Amino acid sequence: MNTLNNLLKENKIDSVPIDFGESTKLLKSAEEDIFFARKTFKDSVKWGFTILYHAAIKILRGLLN
Question: Which residues have CB under 8 Å from 22's CB, separation 6+?
């Protein structure tokens, strides 16, 4: 039997409906972060990468949502 189906039956994972609105918000927010990170690199490479890191998390959450 499929491992995913087993996990669902054993209530170890939940099936979550797709929320395209939330995905769109996350991707838009990540886009804004990337724009801001470009400006930030001039003053601080460290903070620029920190902002990009958070943008990457938003992108992944948006894609997995």
Answer: 62, 65
Rounded Cα–Cα distance for residues 46 and 30 (Å):
18
What Rg value do the Cα atoms of the chain yield, rounded? Answer: 17
Per-residue pLDDT of the chain (65 residues; tens, 9 = 90+): 589 899 999 999 998 888 999 999 999 999 999 999 999 999 999 999 999 999 999 999 999 87
Q: Give the pair of three-digit tokens for residue 12.
A: 């170890």
**Phi, psi (degrees; rounded to nearest 5) at 14:** -115, 150
Count of CB atoms situated within 10 Å of the CB of 8: 13
Closest CA to 34 of 59, 60, 10, 55: 55
The total number of residues written for the chain in this structure: 65
